[in-house]
Amino acid sequence: MTLPPRVTDRAFARLAEIAEEAGEVKALRVAVEGGGCSGFQYDIRLDDPAADDTIFEKDGMKVLVDEVSMPFLANAVIDFSEELIGARFVIENPNASSSCGCGTSFSM
């Protein structure tokens, strides 16, 4: 069964921290583009909503996925990870058949 991506509470919480630090609320855009060392790559950035976006919202924080990227992110989990090597938004994508070591590039 194909489900839309799920955004974790940890990802929404980090987005709220970013908004508080910046003094403005921007949405987190998660998109899939061609390129990277494995064929596709994630583009994760702060952005404003567009007309074709699916919006996931919690407590005023928004995560955006455009309609072209949505099939690539079906059943995926958008999360935030803090490790010794750094902190970043991460995508756990069951559609990816392989990914590179940096976690931003994948193939299907």
UniProtKB/TrEMBL annotation:
Organism: Pseudorhodobacter turbinis
Name the record gives this protein: Iron-sulfur cluster assembly accessory protein
KW Amino-acid biosynthesis (keyword) present: no
NCBIfam families membership: iron-sulfur cluster assembly accessory protein
Pfam families in the record: Fe-S_biosyn
Domain Core: 7-103
Gene3D superfamilies linked: HesB-like domain
PROSITE patterns: HESB
InterPro entries: ATAP, ATAP_core_dom, FeS_cluster_insertion_CS, HesB-like_dom_sf
GO biological process terms held by the UniProt record: iron-sulfur cluster assembly
